[in-house]
Each structure stands twice: as structure tokens, then as C-alpha cells.
Amino acid sequence: MEEYVVLVDAHDRQIGVGEKMASHREGLRHRAFSVILLNGSNILLQRRSRKKYHSAGLWANAACGHPRPDESLPAAAHRRLAEEMGIRCDLTWRAVTHYEANVGKEMIENEIVHLFLATIPARQTRTLTKRTTGAGTDWKLFVSRSNPQTVTATG
């Protein structure tokens, strides 16, 4: 099944729709989101599936993705967080940014990224760490001990 992304201009205004893989190969700017889960000063990270089309096996945020052409950003963020981590919680939109990165396998991320945050209780973090590949860790500690090649550029 083909997936599609929302193509946008530099101001995040929709200018079209593109097939997801072709849009990444061509480096077309598109809309995306990133979900960060917090517990105190900790950020919940997860290891990306080794089956992902880019950045496979690297540590990343709780969930990220692209809204479908007929889907709102909050709905898309909730959908992916449930798919990736099995979590349903309130999300708060916090910021928007742009980034462009060559992520290997002839793929280029060129995204206007909307950042959503949520706070989850420690007991839910412990359950996730045991149940999935998720690992709650202090971000500063994680970065200071990690090899930069083990963390995605995309979050």
C-alpha cells in the first residue's frame, strides 16, 4: 500500500501531496511531527525497528511520522504514538522547525516538523521499558555516553 505525505512550502502551507518514498528520495519538503514523552527530567527514547526504511536500529524519540493528506497533525501524532508505543495520552503542541538531512539509503529528510510533548508517570515508563524496546533515560546522560551514530538526526 502506497503512503502519501503532505508537501509544503517554507511556511508550512500545503502545495500538494507526494508518494512518501519518492518524496524522501527526491528530498521534497513535507509536513511531519515528532512526539517527545517526558518523565521529570527524563525523555523516553525507543530504538527504531531494524525494518525501518532509514535510521533503522537507532535511538529516537517516542514517535514520529507524517500526517496523512486528510489527517490533522494532532490526530496523526496520537495515531503514531499508539502504533509505536501503545500509549494514549494528552499531547501538547510546542514548536515547529525545519530540518534537512541525508539519512542514508539515498533518502533525504526535508521536513517542517511539529513538536508535541507529553508527560507520563514513572510507572508507565517502567512498564514500557520492560514491554518494548523503549528506554527511559536522562537526555544529558544519554548524549554524553552515546556514540552520535546511534541517535537519529530526525529525533
Fold blueprint:
Blueprint: E1 4-8, E2 14-19, H1 20-26, E3 30-39, E4 42-47, E5 59-60, E6 63-65, H2 73-85, E7 92-104, E8 107-119, H3 122-131, E9 134-138, H4 139-145
Parallel strand pairs: 3-8
Antiparallel strand pairs: 1-2, 3-4, 3-6, 4-5, 4-9, 7-8
Explain this structure to me?
With 155 residues, this protein is an alpha+beta fold. The chain has one domain: Nucleoside Triphosphate Pyrophosphohydrolase (Alpha-Beta Complex), CATH 3.90.79. The chain is built from 4 helices and 9 strands; from the N terminus they run E-E-H-E-E-E-E-H-E-E-H-E-H. The protein has helices at residues 20-26, 73-85, 122-131, 139-145; strands spanning 4-8, 14-19, 30-39, 42-47, 59-60, 63-65, 92-104, 107-119, 134-138. The strands form 2 sheets. Strands 3, 4, 5, 6, 7, 8 and 9 form a 7-stranded mixed β-sheet that branches. A two-stranded antiparallel ribbon has the order 1-2. The longest helix is centred in the middle third of the chain and has 13 residues, at 73-85. It is globular, with a radius of gyration of 15 Å. Residues 129-133 and 137-141 have low confidence and may be disordered.
